[in-house]
What does this fold into?
Amino acid sequence: MHFMKTALFSLVLAVSYQSLASWNNLTSQVAGNAIGLANLEYSRRLSENLTLGITGANGHGKLGPLDLSGSAYGVIARRYFKPALEQDSWYLLVGVEKRDFMITRRDQDKDYKAESKSTVGSIGGGYHWFWQSFNIGLGGAVTNQPSLEMKTDAGEVHADRLNPGLSLDFTIGGKF
It folds into this structure.
């Protein structure tokens, strides 16, 4: 599994630096980086209004009382309403991602854990701003990720379930 993560990140970097076309975009999810999950998305314009990209995330992060550790990789397509990667535009997105995360919550001297090992689909939308090579995207998506029950090793269930069914699509990147 570690080899797959390393290979995905290497592929993203190699393709992005070797491409001569100006219809490529390399971005990163701001929220993921803020909590400790390194991530990249490499997208390429396929037609005037459509991009297709590959995504990858890996690391260990903290989100409030939750510790997250693991990786994710997938594909994402965006349909822009103005020429893709050229003009500020609204977009619709659809994506598929393989997630492999362990989530731990320490509560009353007990460790509650949940695993997210699934393939997740997402749909959403947002707005993307472009300034020459720099760009920012802001949107959201819903996923088919089921809620997660957190348990101790002894089988005690935490009162709160995790509901990762919503996600923020906040990216900063560069077009080349």
About this structure: Strands lie at 24-29, 37-47, 50-63, 66-80, 89-107, 110-131, 134-143, 166-175.
